[in-house]
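Quick one, tokens below:
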């Protein structure tokens, strides 16, 4: 019974520590909370193969799975401390303080972290020691009457350790423990609610600032999407991806919620003769352009879902760089890398030559006709056609520094990914689905292909390793968007394997060789097995 009560006291102690820590984090910054800090540190140290496993198996829920895992481990640790503390209280305190120190170190070492980020974990650990002392004191052994001597005094020691003279049926202060635990739970709930409210007030201000934004009409609107760009085949998604269905892959355990009114962007570094500091309103007053651009995540496996097409509105990045005095390396500029920094400390490095070569590289303010959603980088993010996101698509942008690849390695480069990563020519079968059972006869095989900033010239499909058949392509919108395709297959009964490959407008045809996503994107033909009935 006392062991179970000890485990419960550990859970209450852990919950109170988290509540206090999150309250302090609401004042410091949400990313400094112990769960977020430890989770972020784990992400930072995750090997590429494990990251790919998480993205492949959990998708956009990978962060939730990580947070739940951290809380589960914390619960087990807390229960163990609660069981030990009544007999060895100093050991319990030491364990709590060590755990708090780990959280503090993780918070300080996070990108953008500083000494103040240690406060939530430190204060949470100290408060946990107080709660543990209170609860463990109520679990100290109290001998039963049978263990008392003839004069009514205990035969065994009374210092909280069960002695050899104590009766096995000794008890502890159950009533006192229940009262203390209930008070601790109530206090933790109140503190947690206050922390949540403080965090919520900042988020509410950010939401208000976003709701007040009216995106001006672009000076250069996107071309109308051709009527034939969408084939209307059942099982094939729309040409423009709905915002709520657009993929999200990043390392942010807490989505930054930034008030656009206080947001600033700095442009500085090598070759910058006129450093710039820009507000959100400054960008809104500039000439805006609108473009349809397909984005792809480097974590997208062959046939994977992490590709989407949206209509973006923003400011030409090259114009801002030229205004700051930047010249690309081909014109004598000293910087060959543009390092974008997010408010959460993420760094992404893009080739200066690429973002200034005339393509529609943007500082995007809007997505599909609305201000950027918080999940997708509000208030400002980068969009560069033809580059994987990890070398171009910095969300929650706040700083642009001109430097060189020789002088600085951005976040993902430090984790074994290549510095330069143009999007590879790829294609995907969307219908029929894997292991589908279509009826014999004419079966439309359809999907999408992409080769951003080059465009798709041809898509071919084959069955069971036979001859390649040319698919019918949808109308091309721009070379920066994906392209739908369909092939009418006269299917016979039995099990069949469908494969697809694409050729881009540069004449390159997808390789058959299967390669994983590390270090610069997956390759290979997407295949689907179906059973025709």
């Amino acid at each position: 019974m006392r062991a179970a009560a000890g485990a419960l006291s550990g859970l209450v102690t852990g919950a109170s520590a988290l509540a206090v820590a999150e309250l302090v984090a609401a004042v410091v910054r949400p990313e400094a909370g112990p769960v977020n800090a430890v989770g972020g540190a784990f992400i930072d140290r995750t090997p590429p193969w494990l990251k790919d496993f998480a993205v492949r198996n959990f998708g956009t829920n990978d962060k939730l799975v990580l947070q739940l895992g951290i809380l589960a481990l914390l619960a087990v640790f807390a229960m163990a401390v609660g069981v030990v503390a009544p007999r060895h209280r100093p050991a319990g305190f030491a364990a709590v303080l060590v755990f708090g120190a780990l959280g503090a170190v993780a918070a300080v070492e996070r990108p953008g972290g500083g000494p103040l980020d240690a406060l939530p974990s430190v204060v949470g650990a100290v408060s946990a020691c107080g709660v543990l002392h209170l609860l463990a004191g109520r679990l100290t052994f109290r001998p039963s009457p049978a263990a008392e001597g003839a004069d009514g005094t205990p035969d065994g020691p009374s210092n909280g350790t069960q002695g050899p003279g104590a009766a096995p049926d000794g008890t502890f202060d159950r009533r006192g423990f229940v009262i203390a635990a209930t008070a601790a739970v109530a206090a933790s709930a109140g503190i947690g609610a206050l922390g949540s409210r403080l965090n919520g007030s900042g988020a509410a201000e950010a939401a208000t600032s976003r709701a007040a934004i009216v995106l001006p009409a672009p000076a250069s609107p996107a071309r109308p999407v051709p009527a034939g760009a969408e084939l209307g085949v059942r099982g094939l998604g729309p040409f423009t991806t709905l915002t709520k269905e657009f993929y999200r892959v990043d390392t942010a355990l807490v989505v930054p919620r930034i008030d656009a009114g206080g947001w600033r962007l700095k442009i500085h570094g090598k070759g910058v003769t006129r450093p710039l500091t820009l507000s959100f309103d400054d960008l809104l007053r500039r000439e805006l352009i609108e473009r349809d651009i397909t984005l792809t995540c480097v974590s997208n496996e062959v046939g994977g879902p992490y590709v989407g097409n949206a209509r973006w509105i923003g400011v030409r990045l090259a114009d801002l760089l030229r205004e700051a005095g930047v010249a690309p390396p081909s014109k004598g500029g000293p910087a060959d890398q543009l390092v974008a920094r997010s408010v959460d400390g993420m760094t992404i490095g893009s080739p200066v030559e690429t973002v200034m070569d005339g393509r529609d590289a943007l500082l995007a303010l809007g997505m599909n006709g609305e201000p950027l959603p918080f999940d997708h980088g509000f208030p400002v993010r980068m969009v560069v056609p033809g580059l994987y996101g990890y070398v171009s698509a910095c969300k929650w942008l706040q700083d642009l520094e001109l430097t060189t690849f020789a002088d600085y390695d951005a976040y993902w480069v430090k984790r074994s990914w290549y510095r330069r990563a143009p999007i590879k020519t790829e294609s995907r079968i969307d219908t029929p689905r894997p292991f589908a059972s279509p009826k014999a006869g004419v079966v439309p095989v359809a999907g999408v292909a992409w080769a951003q900033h080059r465009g798709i010239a041809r898509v071919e499909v084959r069955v069971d390793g036979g001859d390649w058949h040319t698919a019918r392509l949808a109308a091309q919108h721009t070379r920066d968007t994906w392209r739908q395709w369909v092939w009418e297959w006269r299917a016979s009964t039995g099990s069949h394997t469908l494969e697809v490959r694409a050729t881009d407008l540069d004449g390159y045809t997808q390789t058959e060789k299967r390669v994983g996503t590390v270090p610069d994107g997956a390759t290979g033909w997407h295949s689907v097995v179906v059973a025709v009935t």
